[in-house]
Amino acid sequence: MDKKGYRRGSFQSSTSDEDMVEVAGGTLDFSMVDDVPPLDREMAEGFSSYNGGGMNGSSKMMDFLEEPLPGVGTYEDFNTIDWVREKSRDRDRHREITNKSKESTWALIHSVSDAFSGWLLMLLIGLLAGAIAGLIDISAHWMTDLKEGVCLKGFWYNHEHCCWTSQETTFQDRDKCPEWRTWAQLLTGNQGGEALAYILNYFMYILWALLFSLLAVLLVRGFAPYACGSGIPEIKTILSGFIIRGYLGKWTLLIKTMTLVLAVSSGLSLGKEGPLVHVACCCGNILCHLFTKYRKNEAKRREVLSAAAAAGVSVAFGAPIGGVLFSLEEVSYYFPLKTLWRSFFAALVAAFTLRSINPFGNSRLVLFYVEFHTPWHLLELVPFILLGIFGGLWGAFFIRSNIAWCRRRKTTKLGKYPVTEVIVVTAITAILAFPNEYTRMSTSELISELFNDCGLLDSSQLCEYVNDFNSTKGDDLPDRAAGPGVHRAMWLLSLALIFKVFITIFTFGMKVPSGLFIPSMAVGAIAGRLLGVGMEQLAYYHHDWGIFHNWCSQGADCITPGLYAMVGAAACLGGVTRMTVSLVVIMFELTGGLEYIVPLMAAAMTSKWVADAIGREGIYDAHIRLNGYPFLEAKEEFSHKTLAMDVMRPRRSDPALTVLTQDSMTVEDVEAIVNETTYSGYPVVVSRESQRLVGFVLRRDLIISIESARKKQDGIVSSSVIYFTDHSPPLPPSSPSTLKLRSILDLSPFTVTDQTPMEIVVDIFRKLGLRQCLVTHNGKLLGIITKKDVLKHIAQMANQDPDSILFN
């Protein structure tokens, strides 16, 4: 399969993921894979010469380590990085800078600036992520209101801002003012009846929704195919060491920012919170190119991306601490203490920047910030745990349904018509959403309404209780009988719950940016509010029951339905994503209520237990497995009693392992091996007879070194001997120049014996981030285990299809 970005030079290099087999059936061939320039283009420090010595060694000696060859030590697209090598290179670089800093003042300044560059980078990421999030929030708010009408004072005002300065707004109808006109009022000039106005508004709502979603899907398809979806599964895979060029590039950032606004404004059942993590990581990756330390080292770059993910959640929810914990718990693969501090700083700067922009005009970072004052009672833990069970059941149901639908999209003709799919789902969503006021409003506004604690001044239907002003004490309203408005709201919310549960299954995974946090929270918040109002009415009418007797007397304010909505939102989000600690922290940062940590913890843990009992994977892990990304899950235990010899290749029936010898192969021999195989690296042995291991050399480094030697060094021909030793092998005087490649040889490849248990091998791959591991027996090379071999073996042991571990 011909992949763009794979071909390098005349060897037709088409390597698989640090693998010994060809990748078959991959479909990640987008025309913009080179969005972010490969590192080898940025390492242009000049070419090195080679020892062309043979016996007549008159050529100049030059070691690779003194003058690096451009491209050596870098990676091709869809390959995994070598964490051990990257960390070693960074330690060498740091050691060199530290030693030089003692020599001169300039070197000392360079050392200080190198140490400070990480913090400067975090500052820039926080500023950029906060600014983009503010832009997205303001634009999405305005375009969502544009579906219903326009402001005559200035079309750039949203509905709320338009009516703020109006002199003719009453408190009861504060969302109605003469400056704001619906589309029906504009088109008919207030002529015609209510039925005509309703039909016109309905038609314009659907028209705008279709226009926004069509524009979003066309931009994604035409300019940045990687901008679709949530982005979190791919971010997790990239942070584990996989390379997907262009996924965090400038085009992806630009298109994702624009289309995220369009997708959210179209009224589809999706959120912007997940994609904001992708946006922040794009900012981090692009800004890394300003600093050599991060530009040239893939492991260091991933530390920055972990911090950027924290900044993304910080601006999505206004929860800096929750963002750091989300990065640690959910997305990061390697998270040293230094990254924790930098993540904290990036999240702080991002939240501060968003607060300065003040996108919602209420000095809050999110639309649905609430504060509750009523304490909860111990007996309320029962309904909170029931909400946790509901969240776990819905999470498991959603994951299974959504994965089944996405698999169908991949394996049938449905996947060939992404534009049609988006248009159809948008049309169905808009047609069904408009008649119900709770689905017509944006999902963030719906959650805000559901979280709200009813006060005397609230005009919402959810707060239309039968008031008894004689029993009102100060600000606290007692539990009251539900009025007709509450009854109607309950029916509408029940219909909204059914609608949201099913439409989200088909929306998540379409070719537009789509987050899952907000739709999941909406489902839980609706369920929680329904249960909360039910409990409130039960306490009002049956306050003499034993369970209410001690804490809920007549005229007291004991049940807060908004709190139930918040707990339900946490339960459903936990059921879908399997987050626990970060979820609870995000929720209490949202609400500012430390006293509600216990209900949130109870609901989050219950939903995780229930969902885990039905299926072990969260939605992001399920999508990683569906797409066949080579992600080695660190949370799962490997409990099977297999050995390294059961997994290594070659198997007994396979041809012998392809190896290079240390000093007896010619350039022609090595070129032939490289052309005939697609392996990403080759073990180097003393000789084919002894099979004693010397080291490991990467295919990419071999190709670049040989091509460079042919161009730059005289006397290198097909019959030139390649050697990986310190000294040139003894050759006849008439032989051509030799080529020394010792400096590209890894002299310390990780090895295990053939009797090593696979649970230890899997642990080594997870904790060291290896690409491959060589297997020996009594010091002799037997075979090789790659990361993909490990993943295939784990899939096989779990009775899954091992061939699914490809790039689908």
Automatic annotation (TrEMBL):
Subunit structure: Interacts with NEDD4 and NEDD4L.
Transmembrane regions listed in the UniProt entry: 116-136, 195-220, 253-270, 276-292, 304-328, 378-397, 417-434, 489-510, 516-535
Alphabetized InterPro entries for the sequence: CBS_dom, CBS_dom_sf, Cl-channel_core, Cl_channel-5, ClC
Gene3D superfamilies: 3.10.580.20, 3.90.1280.20, Clc chloride channel
Record membrane topology: Multi-pass membrane protein
Protein family (similarity comment): Belongs to the chloride channel (TC 2.A.49) family. ClC-5/CLCN5 subfamily.
Sorted UniProt keywords: Antiport, ATP-binding, CBS domain, Cell membrane, Chloride, Endosome, Golgi apparatus, Ion transport, Membrane, Nucleotide-binding, Repeat, Transmembrane, Transmembrane helix, Transport, Ubl conjugation
Gene for this chain: CLCN5
CDD domains reported in the protein's UniProt record: CBS_pair_voltage-gated_CLC_euk_bac (cd04591), ClC_3_like (cd03684)
Function: Proton-coupled chloride transporter. Functions as antiport system and exchanges chloride ions against protons. Important for normal acidification of the endosome lumen. May play an important role in renal tubular function. The CLC channel family contains both chloride channels and proton-coupled anion transporters that exchange chloride or another anion for protons. The absence of conserved gating glutamate residues is typical for family members that function as channels.
The protein, known as: Chloride channel protein
Localization in the cell: Cell membrane; Endosome membrane; Golgi apparatus membrane; Membrane
Annotated catalysed reactions: 2 chloride(in) + H(+)(out) = 2 chloride(out) + H(+)(in)
Domain of life: Eukaryota
Claim: Secreted is one of the keywords in the record: no
Boundaries of every CBS domain copy: 648-712, 744-804
